[in-house]
Amino acid sequence: MILQDYDKLIFEISSQGHTGYDMPKSEVEEYDLDAELGEYSRKEPARLPEVSELQILRHYTQLSNRNFGVESGPYPLGSCTMKYNPKVNENIAAMDGFANIHPLQDPETAQGALQLMYELQESLQEITQLDTITLQPAAGAQGELAAILAFKAYFESIGELEQRRVILIPDSAHGTNPATAMVAGFETIELPSTPEGIIDVEAVRAAVGPDTAGIMITNPSTAGLFERDAKEIVDIVHEAGGLAYYDGANLNAIMGITSPGAMGFDACHLNLHKTFTGPHGGGGPGSGPIGVVEKLAPFLPGPNVAKEGDKYVFVMPEKSFGRVKGNYGNFGVNVRAYSYIRAMGPDGLRRASEDAVLNANYLRVLVKDHFDAPFESFNKNDFVLNLTRHKKEYGVNAKDVGKRMLDYGVHAPTTYFPLIVEECLMVEPTETESKRDLDYVADVLIKIAQEAVENPELVQSAPHNTPVRRLDEAAASRKPVLKFAFEEHATKPEGLQE
Ligand SMILES: Cc1ncc(COP(=O)(O)O)c(C=O)c1O
According to the UniProt entry, where is the signal peptide (predicted)? Predict the structure, then answer.
């Protein structure tokens, strides 16, 4: 059989003289940029692949077919809320006035964009029930850091920064929470969970003191459980003079039902790229706006959008610690979130959360007789399974099950997280999966549980039907090959100097 070149890199199928386009003859006189740049001018031509339009289309279409996305099949990656992103939001973000805005564009000429930002700030204020929103941060982790830096600036302003050194973090927390606290210069104390999997109120009571700067809580937690004592915990921290931070990455379970503000928190971040249909994966692009109570508002990063008369303007909060992003934030993701919120309306957002919780619990109940669950309670938007018994009895671990799911066209759940559950699979189906697809995911999990008993080797060596088999993940992260070795693979353009 003659094989096409679909496995090759774009540089390897390059051949001199191919182009994807023809530029019209320029009517403008040529400008000698090299002379202007002098010693900074390019010494050799850029090493770009030379391919025709059809070649490049085939190349990327083939690559995209080998990838797994939410449009390929169910993607129950717990904690990540891989819900379907409606195409209408994409179309709106691609509109000329939104897509081609310049980061330094004069706000006078971008009033529509500022109006969108202003109205998005207002919507998120209503959703979080907090007083002020900034759209600056470009990810959840950056939102966390921005908020904790605002805590820091606040304590400095009241002369308590030296004293308040400690941030309390539950053992179920996402890794970004302790990392944020440390990067911001605080120490952390880990809070244990109860056997039920939620934060132990008495442990909070025992841990707070005059050195408490705050607490960071994810609700629902990373175990998919609602922290029903959140309000009491926040009160304990407040009484000790600390501030309470709400990691809103799991807001998909509570939108329109309750809010960080209603639970008494001082600040929160939202992951617009999870809950509000910004696409995500591969580390971005994201948007992690934060909301804060009034006393923290002067310390927020900026600029943020305000309305003066009928004009929208950028304003820097009075005692801001600075910027964390350009004026418009990660604008494209914010446009998608705005479009989603406007299309859904308050009732639609609440319904999305209710369906997300319903779907997670429906799936949990379908598979519960085939896997062990560490916690006995009703879940929110995701649930966790413990594969320790499968590992001990059949030698099949959580990773093996996740990899085998790929063979059935279902993306693996999150594995080995949260850390408080051994051999953990964390499953989050989201509200955008139909009953038919949920039934299919359940059938797949049940089938794999049977395979683990009858043919463990089949599961241990999965995946079998994917474009690449099991990767050596440790080698991939320790010895990543990030650079294309041009010299080894491609035909050098003639006259190219080394
Ligand atoms: C609970 C929780 N907090 C924070 C984050 C960090 O968000 P981001 O990945 O946008 O930085 C995540 C993301 O996975 C999360 O699940």
Answer: none
